[in-house]
Amino acid sequence: MKRKSFLQATAALAGLTVLPTGTTYAVGNLANTALPIIPSYLQKGDTIGVTSPAGYITLEEIEPAKQLMESWGFRVKLGNTIGKRHFTFGGTDAERKEDLQQMLNDKTIKAIMCARGGYGAVRIVDQLDWTAFKQQPKWVIGFSDITVLHNHINRNMGIASIHSKMCNSFPSVWANADAQQKETILSIQKALTGVRMEYTAGINAFNKKGTATGVLVGGNLKTIESLAASSSDLRTANKILFVEDTGEYMYSMDRMFWNLKRSGKLDNLKALIVGGFKEKKDAGDDDFGKTLQDVVLEKVKEYNYPVCFDFPVGHQRNNFALKCGVTHQLVVTDQQVTLKEQY
Fold it and tell me: Fewer CB atoms < 10 Å away: N or C end of the chain?
C-alpha cells in the first residue's frame, strides 16, 4: 500500500489544552530513574536562539523562519554559525561547539532552534558542558542529525526536547505555502507554547492494534544506530519509540532494525511508531525481496505491543512536531491511530 493512499495526519487544532509554563515531572537528572523534566514553555517576548550545529545555512535562507517566529511574538537571536561555512558544516567544529555552548549557557534564551540537519552534531556533542542547561532547561528543536542531541539529552539528563522541522523547512513565502506545510510549521509554535499535542493518522493494514502509555523517544534510525554503545545511546525500556529515515536501501533498513532488535531496544517497548521511510532503489537487479512492513514485523513478531506505520514524522512534508521525553498515549485501532500527549 502506498503511504499517501491511506494516511492523512492532522494536528488536533481545536480543544487543545495549554500546559502551565515550567511544568516538571521530576527534579532528578537521571534519565532512567526519574520522570521527564519539561522546560518552561515560551511566552511572547521570549527569545529563540538559532544555531547550526551540523550543516551550513545562509543568512538569506534563514530569514523566512526568523520572520515567522518573530510574528509569533518571539525574539530571535542568530548564532555566529548562521551564514558561516566550513566545507559542508556551519563553521568548524570549534565554531559550532562554541555557538551552541553559548546558547546553552545564555539565560535569556528559552529555546534553541537548530537551523538544519546534515551531519556534524556527533562531532561536538562530547565537548559540550551541559551544566547550565541542566540548571535551566530549555527546548532544543530539530530532527535528522539533531537526533544526536535529542538522544544525548534524554539519556543523560531526562529533559524534554522537540523533534520537528527546522529553519530550512520553513516556506520562503508563507502566503504561498499549502495547508499541510503551514500546519507542520505551526505545530512547532504549539509545542513551544505548551499546547497538549495530539495527532490522528489513518489506518494501515500492517498495524498491530493496542494501547500504550510511555515516554516518547526516537528520531532518525541511522543516527540512533550510529550512537550505539556511546554515552548518547538511547534507552528504550518502557518507552514509546518512533523512528524514521530516508535515502536508505531496503537491506540497510533491515540491518538497522536488526540492530534495534539485537541491542535489546525492541524488547521492552511500550509501542513502536514507524514514521516516513524513503527507500533508495538499487539501480541493478539486486532486489532485497522484502517491504519495510516485512522488515519491521519480522523483528517485532514475538512482542505484543502496538505498532503503527507511516506516522507523520520524518524527512517528508507531513513532519509534525513531537515532544521527545514527554509521556504520550498511543492508541492503534482498526479505524485510526492516535498519539496524544499526557500530563
Answer: C
Instruction: State the architecture of 18-192 in CATH terms.
Output: 3-Layer(aba) Sandwich (3.40)
The answer to whether 213 and 241 have CB atoms below 8 angstroms apart is no
pLDDT in tens, 216-242: 999 999 999 999 999 999 999 999 999
**What residue ranges of the chain are covered by domains with CATH 3.50.30.60?**
198-341
- Any idea which residue has 528520531 for its cell? 219
Q: In what order do the strands lie in the sheet with 109-114?
A: 75-78, 47-51, 109-114, 139-142, 161-163, 322-324
CB 27 within 8 A of CB 136: no
Locate CATH 3.40.50.10740 in the chain.
18-192
Count how many residues are written for the chain. 343
* Rounded Cα distance, 197 and 12, in Å: 7
pTM given for the model: 0.91
Among residues 215, 301, 210, 289, which one has the least CA distance to residue 257? 301
Confidence band of 35 (pLDDT split at 50, 70, 90)? confident
CATH class of this structure's domain 198-341: alpha beta
The answer on pLDDT for 29 being more than 60 is: no
CA distances from 196 to 46, 111, 136 (A): 20, 18, 22
pLDDT for 332 equals 98
Other CB atoms within a 10 A radius of the CB of residue 26 amount to 13
Cα–Cα distances in angstroms (integers) from residue 166 to residues 49, 80, 313, in the given order = 12, 17, 13
246-249 long-range CB contacts below 8 Å, 24 or more apart? 246/276, 246/277, 246/278, 246/314, 246/315, 246/316, 247/278, 247/280, 247/315, 248/222, 248/277, 248/278, 248/279, 248/280, 249/279, 249/280, 249/281, 249/282, 249/288
Q: What is the pLDDT of residues 135-186, one digit of tens each?
A: 999 999 999 999 999 999 999 999 999 999 999 999 999 999 999 999 999 9
Grouping H, G, I as helix, E, B as strand and the rest as coil, residue 196 is coil
Rounded to the nearest 5°, which phi and psi values hold at 266?
-100, -10
d(CA 130, CA 29): 11
